[in-house]
Amino acid sequence: MRHGNPIISLHNVMLHYGDGTPVFKNVSLSLHENSFHFLTGPSGSGKTSLMRLLYMGTRPSSGTLKIFDRDVSEISCDELYQFRQKIGVVFQDYNLLNHLNVIENVALPLKVKGESEKNREQQAKEILDWVGLGNCFNAYPDALSGGQKQRVAIARAVICRPKILLADEPTGNVDVQIADKLMNLFYGMHKIGTCVIVATHYRQFVDTFHYDELRIESHNVVAH
Fold first, then answer.
1. Domain range summary for the chain, segments of one domain joined by +
2. DSSP bridge pairs for 90
3. At 140, is the secondary structure helix, strand, or coil?
4. CA–CA distance from 164 to each of 36, 113, 123, 217 (Å)?
5. Which of 6, 15, 192, 202 is in Cβ range 3.0-4.6 Å of 30 for a Cys bridge?
6. Please, what is the end-to-end C-alpha distance for the chain in angstroms?
7. H helices present in the chain, as ranges
């Protein structure tokens, strides 16, 4: 049994496109610290849209979404930046900064927090070694493959040990061996208290790791 308020809470949340086409209808669910969830559903079902909601990149059309026990509709633009510092996100398009090298991209969240150059470089190197990019420290994003960019984005997302980790198809561009290693990294984050949500179409992970599954079906999110 979980105790305390959920870290993420949705109550009758609806999201629709500008023409009124629904993405979600009446979604209600609660996610707690130290929980791990796979978000599944067919292509185009709305997995990325739900991730954007949870990152506060978009607001619900109706209903209530609470993050860290705060209604997102009441969070000001100034507060939004502080809230997002507690959330690690792995986007499908990586969102790396092309004018920064690999270490600088990964260490950027630590720089924002005011960590010393020595500390952030050391931590960035450690996490890059873990994801198999120990030979790419000084490379720039334009020189990396899609799979390498994916791992840089994941390293950047976890380096600050966020309270919430949102990963949108994080293993889509890597081989099975690296994918297993990344899943173990997410598992480690979950074990230290992070709420981890991984959107995936890769059924093997869902069946192997036996974590909670949130499946998008007919514009709703169903727990399995």
1. 97-160
2. 167
3. coil
4. 10, 17, 19, 24
5. 6
6. 17
7. 47-54, 77-84, 102-113, 117-130, 146-158, 176-191, 203-209
Task: Return contacts of 140-147, CB within 8 angstroms, 24+ apart.
Answer: 140/98, 140/99, 140/100, 140/101, 140/102, 141/94, 141/96, 141/97, 141/98, 141/100, 141/102, 141/105, 142/98, 144/102, 145/173, 146/173, 147/173, 147/174, 147/175, 147/178
- Under DSSP, is residue 29 helix (H, G, I), strand (E, B) or coil? strand
Residue of 24, 67, 86, 69 lying closest to 49 (CA atoms): 24
**Tens digits of per-residue pLDDT, 130-159?**
899 999 999 999 999 998 999 999 999 999
Q: How far is CA 196 from CA 15, 32, 129, in A?
A: 22, 10, 22
Degrees (nearest 5) of the Cα angle 48, 189, 181?
A: 80
Quote the CA–CA distance of 192 and 187 in Å, as a whole number: 9
Interhelix angle for 176-191 vs 146-158, to 10°? 10
Q: 155-192: per-residue pLDDT in tens?
A: 999 999 999 999 998 988 788 888 888 888 899 999 99
CB 7 within 8 A of CB 195: yes
The CA distance from 65 to 11, in Å, is: 7
Q: Is the pTM of the predicted complex or chain greater than 0.85?
A: yes
Helix (H, G, I), strand (E, B) or coil at 49: helix
DSSP state of 74: G
Q: Rounded to an integer, what distance in angstroms lies between the CA atom of residue 79 and that of residue 99?
A: 28
Question: Could you tell me which residues come within 8 angstroms of residue 32 by beta carbon, excluding any fewer than 6 positions away?
Answer: 2, 4, 6, 7, 195
